[in-house]
Write a structure and sequence with these properties.
By secondary structure, this protein is α/β, with parallel strands linked by helices. It has eleven helices and eleven strands.
Length: about 325
């Protein structure tokens, strides 16, 4: 009899515990859903890893403006250049996991895992991928004073004068950096890489005659090309670009050459899944907004949006492919 009483008391305690846990879970889920539905309840900041005036400046402002319309909250843009995008990316990793800070990331996000052995964050564990927006076109540009008219001329000049030419990029680990390293590797030439904290300071030095060659994001370089202040020799896409069809691909001179760069967004790991999904869905709305498509095209930007799960899979694939490219090209974290 005593044994039966003890058993019944134990069952009652278990039932009470189960009821309390269920209630707590229900409350947590209700609060969780309410928080995601209310998102954003305060201003949101987009962190850009390059300096103002470069390729991602106008793009990030277009995105911020449209998200602000959707959300009824200010969406600010903050620039944190330096460290081959590491400064900005680390800031995002350490931000509150509530969606108030959204990081713009590029190909460097995947490349840095192989290129930089001392990253202050875990690329796969410290972030929640939100959305890929699309692709930028990279081009090989030179100053008008450089005595070359095409890619073959540049290769011949670089072979005659090893390490006499310097080539700039918008940062270590970026697609533009890798484009230059792959060019040197495949062409068998030696040139000195000079990384910048964005496109604007790079173009300033090119116009000042301090850097004769650059692998540049064309949505910021094209105004200078059209003005005759820089000359575009080729694009780094494997085929002729749909945005810049008048310029040959690098593969026409170096068969097999292929470097593309992309732009996407991440938030800190631990951000509620409902918030991640909301931001991702709204970023896809931005990419597909009819009124923005001409503006993206004017920037030389090819939209190809992906949601959170697809972007996560894409980043993992990029880590493998870009890591292989880093090793093959001999690119170094300088």
């Amino acid at each position: 009899m005593k044994t039966e009483v003890r058993r019944m008391k134990t069952e009652v305690r278990r039932m009470k515990t189960a009821i309390v846990l269920a209630a707590l879970t229900a409350c947590a889920l209700t609060a969780f859903e309410a928080a995601s539905q209310a998102y954003p309840s305060k201003p949101v900041t987009i962190i850009v890893p390059q300096a103002p005036g470069g390729a991602n400046d106008v793009l990030s402002r277009l995105v911020a403006g449209k998200l602000g319309e959707y959300w009824g909250q200010p969406v600010l843009v903050d620039f944190k250049p330096g460290g081959g995008a590491v400064v900005a990316t680390q800031y995002v990793a350490r931000s509150a996991p509530d969606g108030s800070v959204v990081g713009l990331v590029t190909s460097a996000h995947a490349t840095n895992l192989t290129l930089n052995p001392k990253l202050p964050y875990d690329t796969l564990k410290d972030f929640a991928p939100v959305a890929r927006l699309g692709f930028n076109v990279i081009g090989l540009v030179v100053t008008p004073s450089l005595p070359v008219s095409d890619v073959k001329d540049l290769i011949e000049l670089a072979r005659r004068k090893p390490d006499a030419l310097s080539h700039g990029s918008n940062g270590i680990g970026t697609g533009a950096h890798l484009a230059g390293e792959l060019f040197k590797s495949m062409a068998g030439v030696k040139m000195i890489h000079v990384p910048y904290k964005g496109g604007a300071p790079l173009y300033t030095d090119m116009l000042g005659g301090r850097i004769p060659v650059a692998f540049a994001i064309l949505n910021s370089a094209m105004p200078l090309v059209k003005a005759g202040k820089l000359r575009l020799l080729a694009v780094t896409n494997p085929q002729r670009s749909t945005v810049y069809p008048d310029y040959p691909p690098m593969s026409a001179t170096l068969p097999g050459y292929d470097v593309t760069t992309w732009t996407g967004f991440v938030v800190a790991a631990g951000t509620p899944r409902e918030i991640v999904n909301k931001i991702g869905a709204d970023l896809i709305r931005v990419a597909n907004a009819p009124e923005l498509r001409p503006k993206f095209a004017d920037l030389g930007y090819e939209t190809a949006p992906l949601g959170p799960a697809e972007f996560d899979a894409f980043i993992r694939a990029e880590i493998e492919s870009k890591g292989r490219l880093v090793r093959e090209s001999g690119a170094k974290f300088e």
